[in-house]
Design brief:
The protein is of the alpha/beta class. It is about 45% helix and about 25% strand.
Length: about 150
Amino acid sequence: MALDVGSRTIGLAVSDPLGITAQGLETIRRKNKRTDLAALAKVIAENGVVEIVVGLPLRMSGQEGTQAEKMREFVAVIEKQFGLPVSLIDERLTSVEANRVLRESEMSIKKRAGAVDRLAAVLILQSFLQLRSNNSPQRHRGTEEFTD
């Protein structure tokens, strides 16, 4: 399962059992830590999730900033809560790409706003699946990180 975590929403995507394709799921509207984790627990149980991939928001330079630090803290919480392996993957351009794809689909602006987080999670998961198939992991602090 991939997560595109923002301050107001969490975009979700899961792969097929063979880890070949990614499908978007309903976006979680964030409220507080307890309800966010409960919503994630439900998705994990319903989809038989065995691994989680989280987008790591890096600056365009590749350096980590405040948002990346917050994401690492979030990852520590979900690792502890669910006991599943969690990987981080560079997500720098996923939201930009998601918006571009949705604009080209001629979807209304209102519908686009609701779909961008889900599509960003799909793009994160597709990148992860492709990188994993290429066998290019880089280990860091116990959490797997993947970069292009």
